[in-house]
Amino acid sequence: MPATPPWYVISLRPRGEHAALRRAAARHGGGLIALSPWRLQLRDDATARAAVRSALAASRIVFTSPAAVRAARALQVLKPRRGQAWCAVGAGTAAALRRAGISDVHAPARMDSEGLLSLPVLQDVSGHDVGLVTAPGGRGEITPALLARGAAVLRADAYARVPVPLSTQALQRLRTTDAPLVLALSSGEALQRVLEALPADLAGKLRGARVVAASERLQALARGCGFKEIVVARGPRPADLLTAAVQRLPVG
After folding, report:
1. pTM, entire model
2. What share of the chain in percent tops pLDDT 70?
3. Tell me, what CATH number does 168's domain have?
């Protein structure tokens, strides 16, 4: 990478979770500005352990992120039982489950809540328990949809998103760069928190960035937040986001 990259991708990933997006940007000649609104903290208390134990006993088990898999695995060995269906919101979460020893994982091609809810195994759930391993906030569509289908949702908040101040180094880079900016958007809640935390001048500058969104829902959210130039990637993975950015947005 040159000392001054010709363009930057802005990452809203949790603190310490930027490496994959940074590598993907570097493959296309870009740099990265890390604007983390929070860090991830695994829970290790009696309430979390009981909730995870209950969720993992359900006939269907849904994991909303790789972090949810890591958190559950830290509390209990993941071992499938006869008749269970293990579900992941996307490819990254499915891969985390397979690394944890769950070989048969249901995951959608469309890697978001809507795609997850379209899985055949989550259609006829009336009278079934569905374990939801997740964190507070985000993915708010899943529980109401499952309840409407007659399921009993056993929620386990296995980790938490702990707010952190935005990096002063990242803010300075955002303030001083004249290079094109591409916002990698895979979390609406993260975007809203960052916009609330930024000084007014930098919030305005961020809204001038081109956006590559992981879903049509996030595209609509970005438009509602004042962003103008937005494209939708095939999914939330770093490679998907950066491929869409360089192919469909004028960067570099």
Report:
1. 0.86
2. 97
3. 3.40.50.10090
